[in-house]
Amino acid sequence: MALHRISGRIFEQQSSDYSDCELVVDGDRAFVHSGAIKQDIGNLAQLKIQARLGSFAQKITLPDGRVFETEDLDAVEQLRPGGFWNTVAKTEKTGWHLIPLAIATPFMAFGLYKLMIPVLISMGMSITPDQGLYALDKSTLRTLDRIVLDETELTAERQDELTTVFNKLLAAKEKTGSKSDRNFKYKLLFRDAGPIGPNAFAMPGGTIVVTDDLVQEFDEDHIIAAVLAHEIGHVDSEHQLRQVYRALGMWFMITMIAGDAGEILEDALLEGSAVLSLSYSREHEMGADNYSYDLLKAADMRTDGLVGFFDRLQKNYPLPKKGEWAMSHPVADNRIENIIERIIADGGTPPDRNSDTPSDGDDGTKSDEPVKEE
After folding, report:
1. Which end of the chain is more exposed for a tag (fewer CB within 10 A), N or C?
2. Residue 208: helix, strand or coil by DSSP?
């Protein structure tokens, strides 16, 4: 094999500390170059190359237990020893006999997807203990804090105010009961997320993160309460855990075909990097919207918060209007209509969507006055 140089970083065993370096492969030997230090780490065959996970950084476990990480995915692929697709790539010039294989492969993959994914999801969810969810939350948060999140700049007073709203929702949830029999550990955290903007997201074990931009952009508590209730709905319905196992099932199928299972399960469940790439289905998002409405109603809080949330998102952060079936989330208009229909069905008055002035009851409680009707 020709000389290969791959720039990246090396992590010490069981540590998040790292240093920049180069992984150099010369023939069948591998070396780590860090500054003026050149270290022979052994035979190329001793390297454990992680299966490729989309555009995530590629990891290579060295014989001494350290981990080399790089974004140069193509360079790592050249080191990979084999697998179905590599064999196809090497033999693609040998004749026309590969055409039937190329045609059949998508149909084979689709059949495996339809048959295996539901089974893998059900099996994975049934054997995952609550402690596994807590560990996943912790590792995911650690990864997020390392690569994208910073400490919140919200005042302690504002954090306390929103935590009070959060606890009121949890108290109402205790009265209405849970959809899951798991013992989730609900916890509200605040982070400065920079370019991510206004956002909130839930982790499988019950950790919910709200960005500073969300709090600053939507300063009405009833809107933030609706978003928090929505995220609680994702947790209680186990949507995030289901998406984790759906992604794992896809990667498992791909690596079965590619011939390299690597360390997919370890990375997804212990490091948490896979969780960052997940998105909810249309059904999950609509279900969480309805859960939010019911929870707000049980807490005797305003139920129209998501309407204001989506309206302002569409105004300040335009969302796609078409191609709903190709999207992983429902178009916001459909979700707005769903909430308004529920308000009307309960005998309420839809909010004035043309007004930019916050209504009464911005502490999240119901307004004493009816909301102005258009």
Report:
1. C
2. strand
- Please report where in the chains the tokens 């596994």 appear, as a residue: 132
DSSP letter string, 76-105: HHTT----HHHHHHHHTTS-TTHHHHHHHH
Q: What is the CATH number of domain 4-77?
A: 2.30.29
Q: For position 98, what pLDDT does the model report? A: 57
- DSSP readout, 267-305? IIIII-GGGGG----HHHHHHHHHHHHHHHHHTTB-S-H
- Both structure tokens of 60: 């290579």
**Rounded-to-integer distance, Cα 107 and Cα 67, Å:** 37
Contact indicator for 155, 223 with CB cutoff of 8 Å: no
Burial of 347 (0-12, 13-18, 19+ CB in 10 A): exposed
Q: Which of 116-120, 134-138, 325-329 has the highest average model confidence (pLDDT)?
A: 134-138
Query: What pLDDT digit, counting tens, does each position of 110-126 carry?
Result: 666 666 667 777 777 77
Between 77 and 367, residue with greater pLDDT: 77
Give residue limits of the domains in the chain.
4-77, 130-244+252-345
Q: What is the DSSP letter of 317?
A: S
Helix, strand, coil percentages (3-state) for the chain, rounded to 5, are 50, 15, 35
The pLDDT of residue 325: 33
pLDDT at 85: 41
How far lies 184's CA from each of 108, 226, 228, 364, in Å? 38, 20, 15, 24
Highest-confidence segment of 38-52, 155-169, 311-325: 155-169
Helix (H, G, I), strand (E, B) or coil at 194: helix
What is d(CA 254, CA 234) in angstroms, rounded to the nearest whole number?
27
Look up residue 336 and give its DSSP letter. Answer: H
Which is higher by pLDDT, 66 or 368? Answer: 66
